[in-house]
Amino acid sequence: MLLQACNGGDALAPVGSETGVALPAVVNGTPLVSRVAPDTIEAGQLLVLTGQDLPTTLAGVRVTLGDTPLDVRAMSATRMEVAVPVGVFPCSAVTVKRLDVAMGATTLLSQDVPLRTAQRILLEPGQSLSGQSLSAGSLSDQSETGAETTAADVSGCFELVAAGRPDSSSAAPRFVMALVNPDTDLSRSAVFSVHGIGSPTAATTRVITQSAIPQLTTPASHLQTHTPEPETPTADTHGALLQTQARLAGTPGMARRGWQQRRSSFAATRTERQVGDTVTMTALLNSCTQGQPVKARVVYAGTRALVLEDVNAPRAGRMDQSYRAIGAEFDTLVYPMLKRDVGDPLAMNDMMAGDGRVTMLFTRFVNDSAPGTAGYVSACNFHPRSTFAASNEDEVFYARTATLTETPDEWRRTMRATVVHEAKHLASFAERLARGMPFEETWLEEATARIAEELYARHFPGGGAWRGNTSFSGSLECELLQCDDRPLVMWRHFSQLYGYLREAGTLSPLGPTSRNDNSWYASGWSLVRFVLDRYVQDEGASLRQLVRGDAGRGLAALESVASTKSGDVLSSWALANIGVTDVVDVTGTVNRAGSWDVPSMWTGLAQLYAGVYDASPLRSDRQVLGSEFTSVQRVVAGGSAYVVLEGDGAAMSQIVRVTPGENGAAPVWKVARVL
Fold this sequence. Notes:
It is built from 14 helices and 30 strands. By secondary structure, the protein is of the alpha+beta class. A six-stranded mixed beta sheet has the order 12-14-29-16-27-17, with no helix packed on it. The chain has a six-stranded mixed beta sheet with strand order 18-19-20-21-23-22. The protein has a five-stranded mixed beta sheet with strand order 4-11-10-6-7, with no helix packed on it. α7 (442-457) crosses α10 (520-534). The longest helix has 28 residues, at 408-435. It is elongated, with a radius of gyration of 31 Å.
């Protein structure tokens, strides 16, 4: 609301009248402007003019800066407050503009004033600031001294200032800027331009390109046969199957309604299976009404697990010990962990009048029909046959059998984490179907399944801990060198995350950006892991919210558990990926470590696989602090791009302008001073 003097004093009151009666514009004496504050005008500030006998109404009052009219926000006989807009003036260093104040034909002030169009951001080492170059931003309530702003709502034109000059023993300042495309539509990319405004020299323009990621094709000699092969691109079949099942059988409320009609007759026909029984199951893939019959033998019948082996498996009848070990581990470790910290795979069991066990069908159907896929689930099996004729009416996951070229131990080493992963999908399906809630978006469904694998890894010595800053030595190293009987778990997480970081602008945690892209399994895991490390007080409770659907779906669910906007979550995670890892929890306690010491993973992999991995996978555009440059970056939805500004000992600041391209959304960005 516009303000004026009340009773001739300095108190500010509304301009105008509710009745519409015109207020007098006559003032006593000659108007005089005696002071302009601050000395250097800044975009986004209030410009304060003080004097005597100033106009107390807006009638005929004009304030312009250069050719730009300014908005008068408050008036009294001794003070006038004027808004200086953001984004109107060209982004540059301090320039001189003519400030004119007039009332009618009378000029009250006309003088040259310095104008700073870039909002100043003073950062100490370790400090960071978020922003978005969408709009002009908001005016800050600044004092008359023109104090430099550290507000989070800054525009796309700003000046990074290293607060305090390093002494002779300190490194020159360094700023790291992460830019994120906040779009969620993977079919759209955005082009961002980062302009450095420095000395008047010719600008350089660069488009960041990504080279091919080297693939691990042969093991290092000292690892011999213990080196796992990288996951094949066809593994993305798993994500596609999840999408299909959600489409076919994920309609909220349908499963409950079906079982309410079916339950009374079903309970009388259920028979409990025992070891040695031969049963016929239906293998489902992309249909709920048609499947392939599989004859299987019951190898293990425990309290929570029922393990079946396809009688036509290549090693049929020769792997009972391996199957029993998997079943027993599920009973004693995996199921209790899932129910406590993730979700209950048997949440639909009472409604289905089930036997209280998860059925694991190891069948060559998976090997033949979904090559490259270790296992998958079908939501169709949670429905009665009256709804879907091919349903097994059971909590079932399908997994591949061992081939003749791998030993039972090798198969079990890779299969144990798959059991956890698929049981987690069963938990998500069961929890949501039982509550009549929609299925999760595929990327987050897979990300939380990888989180479940991670929780499983913690049960082994050195396998990690929440906010434990677990390093390569004794964890991932032990998996790769087979220092004990632990399975391969975190290898998939970090090897795929490495691939994501090499191409962070063209890859996304929100899903695949090409046919052979499976990096999103790991980048999605990393994003959720970051949220659980940084923003929540109870890891298990927050994870259960995500899996059960209590927090919503997709990025909105992460926003809910983090109590933070997804743009800030994504940009903060992007900075963490480049090494800015300080974590502050919701109580305000600084926790400088997440659950994993990620840089040590890259160092360890680089040592084991020299020439294939390196210790710094993430690529950035490096510029000299204080220079003039233009960096053009094409970024997919959810992707990140990086600009690093490194000081040379002379410059202590950098003016930066961030602009969106013609075809893209404006980036969300976060900048941190690391030195």
